[in-house]
Amino acid sequence: AQTVTQSQPEMSVQEAETVTLSCTYDTSESDYYLFWYKQPPSRQMILVIRQEAYKQQNATENRFSVNFQKAAKSFSLKISDSQLGDAAMYFCAYRSARGAVWNTGTASKLTFGTGTRLQVTL
Amino acid sequence: EPEVTQTPSHQVTQMGQEVILRCVPISNHLYFYWYRQILGQKVEFLVSFYNNEISEKSEIFDDQFSVERPDGSNFTLKIRSTKLEDSAMYFCASDPNTEAFFGQGTRLTVV
Fold first, then answer.
1. Which of B33, B38, B56, B70 has its CA 20 to 30 A from that of A110?
2. Per-domain residue ranges for chain B?
3. Cα B9 from Cα A43, distance rounded (Å)
4. Chain B from 74 to 103: CB within 8 A of any A CB
5. B3 to chain A nearest CA, in Å?
6. How many interchain CB pairs under 8 A, A with B?
7. Fold adopted by B5-110
8. Each residue of A16-62: pLDDT tens digit?
9. SS3 state of residue A104
């Protein structure tokens, strides 16, 4: 079974600064997806960024980028130029590519880490 | 932009009562999921659904739970006899085979 570990329960960053949230995972699969989700106080789950394991290039979405180290099974999220609206819980998640790649009809669930609460200060 | 819609946003129910949580997934998505998040904890997988049948379920998804797609659009989660520990946020998600799109969640409070 896959596991996802987020070792930082809380992080704090000053507005306009950069912060990195850590995530490690354990899997025996070679094809999978990794995600970062943001959960603001409204508790809605918002996709921030996604990485396909077969891609060596790190994904970026505006101020958000990842450092994907497949051999080390590490997937950190970097938030640049932090804004007050970035304050939220951030969850790292793993999804097998089994259903997507071979279209076996097996829905692949997300396995989440325990989350990191990010505070943004003035 | 299409989105996953969940109703109600908040439901309070008495212990032992049945509840039905409703979801309208994004049309033409193939896979559907229910997840649960107890306050302050991580998001946990409950069940996945594909081609009108359960694809996978977790150990949490016991006989008290059931899912249906009664009319080809709605996707429901039923809890037959609620317990206090069922109090949580329940998220529906739909997936076109690449990534999950989440609804805004239903906050279930069992008293």
1. B70
2. 5-110
3. 11
4. 89, 91, 93, 95, 97-102
5. 12
6. 70
7. Immunoglobulin-like (2.60.40)
8. 999 999 999 999 998 899 999 999 998 889 999 999 999 989 999 99
9. coil
